[in-house]
UniProtKB/TrEMBL annotation:
This is SRPBCC domain-containing protein. Pfam families: AHSA1. Gene3D superfamilies: 3.30.530.20. Transmembrane segments: none annotated. Residues 19-166 form the Activator of Hsp90 ATPase homologue 1/2-like C-terminal domain. It comes from Paenibacillus filicis. Belongs to the AHA1 family.
Amino acid sequence: MSSIPNQSFEIAFTRVFDSPRELVFKAWAEPEHFAKWWGPKGFSLEVVKMDVRPGGMFLGYQTSPDGSHVMWGKFTYQEVVAPEKVVFIQSFSDEQGNTIRAPFNANWPLEIMNVITLEENDGKTTLTLKGGPLNASVEEQAAYDGMAPMLKQGLEGTFDQLADYLASQK
């Protein structure tokens, strides 16, 4: 039985990586890999905690290229099936891992559910990400919907970094 709450997904994103599924999974599940590619281009990621199992948590912070902005975030893992699936709830947080409002929009949803699936075919891996707000108010849903195009653009940039990182691991 899945532990995923009822969820309608707002974003669906698919990308094919020229790497085996096990390596792509490790890039999502191991801090030494994850810190090298996750986040906006030019930002650095410091992983404070990463326990990729149901009930486990990722906690870390991103720093802007000029060092003027620091954003903390967390993932709470719901389901992990190595090497094919990772389900997590993503939130902004403080240094202790308490969920907080996004610094850029007071109406941004507190929680975003993400489902990552990985399928391998001929040494390449197709990653599918589905995501959307969890338990969002009308105002939060509207904020998310309004930023969905920017969110997709940001994901493309993040996945470009993942592709570059995976290529460097060959």
